[in-house]
Amino acid sequence: MQKFDNIDDYIADLKKKREASPTCSNTRYNLGVAYLSKRDFMEAEREFLVAIDESPKMAEAYVQLGGIAMQRGDLEGCLRYNITATQQRPFFAVPWGNIGYVYMEQGETDKAIKALKRAIKYDPNFVQALSTLGAAYFNEGELDDCIEVCEKALKLADNFGPAWNNLALCYTEKEDYKKAIECVDKAIETGFDVSDEFLKELEKHR
């Protein structure tokens, strides 16, 4: 595989390939991903749209378009693109995880749990989906289920801040403040932005 010194050289090479084969959906997709790495969302979106026009079953491109929609704060657009991705590839875990996340943002916890369970069924090591499922369980008051899935997430990725934060919330609810403080400190170590209100509450128990 050819090595490139920087992303601009890689983009230039992909543009040459695009000129040589304008209908190659893989080149279009790769170009979209390259533009995303530069945070050039408009160009990325353009390439992904052409990619799915050429290859309507390219589930990854729908997921990327969903990510761009999310970046713009368009939750409905994100949801639509990820649902389409699951229609093209039903056992692709990533769009199911994204669907669960959007439902959580929309306050549809039951729908979120169903989607996230599917994501984890198709990829048991999907750390983000495990942690988001933990947050959904916490919202439902299912503290033990939250702890179980967040501990699974942290076995896979010890530095995943959202899972530590979820655990801190659960242990606070259980009034095990020693454990809650340990977990919130871990969350902060990872760079996770713990809410000031929650930190103030825990400070009383240090």
Overview of this structure, please?
It holds the Pfam family TPR_1. By secondary structure, the protein is mainly α. The chain has a domain at 125-206: Serine Threonine Protein Phosphatase 5, Tetratricopeptide repeat (Alpha Horseshoe), CATH 1.25.40. The protein has twelve helices and no strands. Helix 7 (109-122) packs antiparallel against helix 8 (127-139) and helix 9 runs antiparallel to helix 10. The chain is elongated, with a radius of gyration of 20 Å.
Task: Examine the secondary-structure arrangement and name the CATH architecture of the domain at 125-206.
Answer: Alpha Horseshoe
Number of helical runs? Answer: 12
CATH class of the domain at 125-206: Mainly Alpha
- Rg, Å, rounded: 20 Å
Order of helices and strands: HHHHHHHHHHHH
Q: What name does the CATH topology of the domain at 125-206 carry? A: Serine Threonine Protein Phosphatase 5, Tetratricopeptide repeat
The CATH superfamily of the domain at 125-206 is Tetratricopeptide repeat domain
Major pleated sheet? none
C-alpha geometry: elongated
- The total beta strand count reads 0
